[in-house]
Amino acid sequence: MSTSKTRSSRNWLAHLWALSTGRFGLVVAGLVTATAIVSSFWMPFDPQNVDIAVRWSTPSWLHVFGTDGTGRDILSLIMAGSRTTVFVAVGAGVIATVLGLALAALGALTPRAIRETVAVFVDILIAFPVLLIAMMISAVWGGSLWVVIWAVGIGFGVNIARVTRPELRRVLHSDFVVAGRASGLTPAQNLVRHLLPNVAPVFIVQLSWAMAVAVLAEAGLSYLGFGAPVTEPSWGSLLSELQQYITVQPLVVIWPGLAITITVLGLNLLGDGIREATDPTLRRSARRRPAAELHEPEVVA
To answer: ABC transmembrane type-1 domain: which residues (predicted)?
Structure first.
């Protein structure tokens, strides 16, 4: 069984890599993660080092992305900010996973009264946008990375619960789940062995989108002053600092904005690629499409 599982996971990853969206998403996610790891022990310059002599330097071999108005190296600031990005994305993903699966299980596997109560609770929470939740929490406890992580985790955990709950209800009535229940498996064992693996594709797609929203929310909240503190490097706070000089040095604003855009785009496309790689109906339609195009009759005027 372990061999078959390994083979199926390899086939799934191979299909994901064959897709242009999946390949782009994997490359972006890997590059951002690698940058965060490397920046923990090496950067070209100290990101907080101020050197007035080289302020507003244009891109060169010494300062690849140039410097800001205080002489700080832009590349080092972006590398340091990648640690914040990865930390927020992973932290929000963990919270969204735990909360989403817990609410989905309560809304699918419990008696009817509890199921309906959980469904109403989820519908109420899903009406509040993630950024609004983060700003309300920041107004009470102050701005920090943990505020962003908890706000995005709660917001997308509710989304995961809403999408995963009907899938759990559908799989719950499958023959293999009924057979597992008849063989003496407890509800928790049935959930781990049969239910969660069968809803994993839907869940993973939602999780990748949650991480993309976490990156965007952290950048947006830091830009507005509700996110990372001043002492914590962040792409959003860097963009906020540099945008006031856009008429003087427009090039320096491009780099943090480009980092945010590519990261969010890569995570969103990774979610689309995972959805296509794990959905057998989309695989079959993708295989049939070229053949249909080859036999498409020409229209003669």
So the answer is: 82-271
CATH, domain range 2-288: 1.10.3720.10
Q: What share of the chain is helix, strand, coil (3-state, %, to 5)?
A: 75, 0, 25
pLDDT tens-place string over residues 209-249: 888 888 888 888 777 777 777 777 888 888 888 888 888 88
Placement of tokens 């140039």 in the chain: 66
Measured between alpha carbons, how far is residue 182 from residues 91, 179, 185, 191 in Å? 38, 5, 7, 14
Element spanning 102, H or E: helix 74-109
Gap between the Cα atoms of 191 and 168, Å rounded: 9
Residue entry with tokens 């909360």: 99
Distance (Å, rounded) from C-alpha 63 to C-alpha 287?
47
Alpha carbon distances (Å) from 157 to 2, 93, 122, 171, 255: 30, 8, 10, 20, 31
Nearest partner of 78 among 65, 88, 87, 90, judged by Cα: 65
d(CA 204, CA 274): 8
pLDDT score, position 151:
82
Q: Tell how far CA 108 is from the center of its chain.
A: 25
State how far the Cα of 264 lies from the Cα of 283, in Å rounded to an integer. 25
pLDDT of residue 1: 46
Burial environment of residue 151 by CB neighbours within 10 A (0 to 12, 13 to 18, 19 or more):
buried
